[in-house]
Design brief:
The protein is built from three helices and seven strands, in the order ααββββαβββ. The longest helix has 8 residues, at about 1-10. It has helices at about 1-10, 15-20, 95; strands at about 50-55, 60-65, 75-80, 85-90, 110-115, 130-135, 135-145.
Length: about 160
């Protein structure tokens, strides 16, 4: 009985374990609200597209299911400083918005967003990231750089 009460009081207690299981998943669900990186409250619900993530020796490949989404409705961004790949957009046709006579509504409609954090240990080339939409699947390829990047030489000037 105590376990049921704990679940009712804290139904999302184990959610943090999901985001901690992979260095690629954005941990915004587990951040402290007082953190400087705390997510802003959103007034609208965004659904999260399903994805497969492959970490190959020469690239990271992300495949996201976006059935019915048009290429023009997808935004793919990579934030260099935070090393986060963000895929967002909106899906909904005009007929989907007309709910008159709607009996069953199982398809997701509206804004979507998926954020994938690239671990610091992965040497990637953000300038060569590509994205391609084929048959409702968005494939994003993030090329890796061989070895470590060369250190940047800093010149010392005389006074």
């Amino acid at each position: 009985m105590r376990h049921i009460i704990d679940y009712i009081d804290h139904p999302f207690r184990g959610v943090g374990d999901l985001t901690m299981s992979s260095p690629f998943l954005d941990n915004s669900l587990t951040r402290s609200p007082t953190s400087s990186q705390a997510p802003q409250l959103q007034t609208s619900f965004k659904f999260v597209p399903l994805m497969d993530l492959y970490n190959k020796p020469d690239r990271i490949r992300v495949s996201l299911s976006l059935p019915g989404v048009k290429m023009d409705d997808i935004v793919v961004e990579f934030e260099d400083e935070s090393r986060v790949l963000s895929v967002s957009g909106e899906t909904c046709s005009e007929t989907d918005k007309d709910s008159l006579g709607l009996v069953v509504n199982e398809r997701q409609c509206g804004e979507f967003e998926r954020r994938i954090r690239i671990p610091q240990g992965e040497n990637i080339d953000p300038n060569r990231i590509t994205a391609k939409l084929t048959n409702g699947v968005l494939e994003v390829v993030i090329p890796k750089i061989e070895g470590r990047p060369d250190p940047k030489k800093v010149n010392v000037d005389k006074e």
